[in-house]
Automatic annotation (TrEMBL):
Organism: Spongiibacter pelagi
EC class of the enzyme, as a word: transferase
Reactions the enzyme catalyzes: heme b + (2E,6E)-farnesyl diphosphate + H2O = Fe(II)-heme o + diphosphate
Membrane topology: Multi-pass membrane protein
Protein name: Protoheme IX farnesyltransferase
């Protein structure tokens, strides 16, 4: 592999591509949930491009700010800035270009509301969470989770230009999902966070306390995911999916809490990602398939 292709890979990695891809799935589905038919193609492409660039920019700032702690933790020590493969200044320029481009796209071709909400999420993650909360309180990821939870709202406002209760419900789902998603991993990596003095919940309050709160949030998540059905936003297919997926999450949170399976923390973390992906996909399927079934059923 040439040095040049290596460096592109490093810049790509700065954007946390897998995380941003899952966020994009939620913003795309936020767009589709906002309308009964097809999302205008320009909004679909430019809206998600703008959101992705801004999220990538925030992720690059996170790498930049965290380089000294990243190099000390096994999970993150090989990151591009921590290892000096990307210079701090270049990373800052890269983040500024991505953020500037993303904002320009949203302001020029989408709408001002989406642009400012996206900027708030960018700053919420890159500045409020990374620079302050992460180092200050074990509630860091709970509060910081608001930024990561925003994409379905950003997708929704990109299409409609308005904030809507149903869009906020999608944000609420990801907001409540974030603590079990992260704490499962943080339980596994507790000693590393302790080593770099980051006050994650398992460090400040212990593993058992964190496991219990992971279970509590998972139960709360189960309840919150019933709300799209209860409010008439989604139908029976979604309800079935939410109940099955939620039962699986609670199962893993219980296995985690019982503590006799050493693989439970990372299995719960992996499940959290599959869970969110599947929940949003089933919501989209419900949105299009169920009305279609009614139409065709009614027409026969
Ligand atoms: C404040 C909120 C969040 C925190 C603290 C958090 C924390 C983390 C951490 C530490 C990892 C790294 C695991 C590793 O390096 O192996 C991770 C991975 C991941 N997170 Fe989150 N996360 C948050 C929000 C989100 C959101 C909102 C999404 C998507 C909607 C998301 C999707 C993912 C995905 C897909 C991965 C796997 C990445 C990979 O395999 O490369 N996360 N998360
Ligand atoms: C515009 C918009 C939607 C912005 C959202 C930005 C974004 C990419 C949020 C990601 C959330 C995340 C992976 C947090 C982990 O950070 P960490 O520093 O705790 O984890 P780390 O140790 O792996 O870096």
């Amino acid at each position: 592999m040439t040095a040049e292709s290596m460096s592109w890979r490093d810049y790509y990695e700065l954007c946390k591509p897998n995380v941003v891809l899952l966020m994009l799935l939620t913003s795309v589905i936020g767009m589709f949930m906002a309308v009964p038919g097809m999302v205008p193609l320009d909004v679909l492409i430019l809206g998600n491009l703008g959101i992705a660039l801004c999220a990538g920019s925030a992720a690059a700032v996170n790498h930049l700010v965290d380089q000294r702690i990243d190099i000390q933790m096994a999970r993150t020590h090989n990151r591009p800035i921590a290892q000096g493969r990307v210079k701090t200044k270049n990373a800052a320029v890269f983040a500024a270009i991505l953020g500037g481009l993303g904002m320009a796209i949203l302001l020029l071709w989408i709408n001002a509301l989406t642009a400012w909400l996206t900027l708030a999420s960018l700053l919420g993650y890159a500045v409020v969470y990374t620079l302050f909360l992460k180092r200050a309180t074990p509630q860091n990821i709970v509060i910081g989770g608001i930024a990561g939870a925003a994409p379905p709202l950003l997708g929704w406002t990109a299409v409609t230009g308005e904030i809507n209760g149903h869009a906020l419900l999608l944000v609420l789902i990801i907001f409540v999902w974030t603590p079990p998603h992260f704490w499962a991993l943080a339980i596994h990596r507790r000693d590393e966070y302790a080593k770099v003095d980051i006050p994650m919940l398992p460090v400040t309050h212990g593993i058992s306390y964190t496991k219990f709160h992971t279970l509590l949030y998972t139960i709360l998540l189960f309840v919150v995911t019933l709300l799209p059905f209860a409010t008439g936003m989604s139908g029976v297919l979604y309800l079935l999916g939410a109940v099955c997926l939620g039962a699986g999450f609670i199962y893993w949170a219980i296995v985690l809490m019982r503590g006799n399976n050493p693989k439970a923390p990372m299995a719960t973390f992996a499940y959290s990602i599959i869970y969110l992906m599947a929940l949003f996909i089933v919501m989209l399927l419900d949105h299009y398939l169920i009305p279609a079934a009614y139409v065709y059923g009614g027409g026969v």
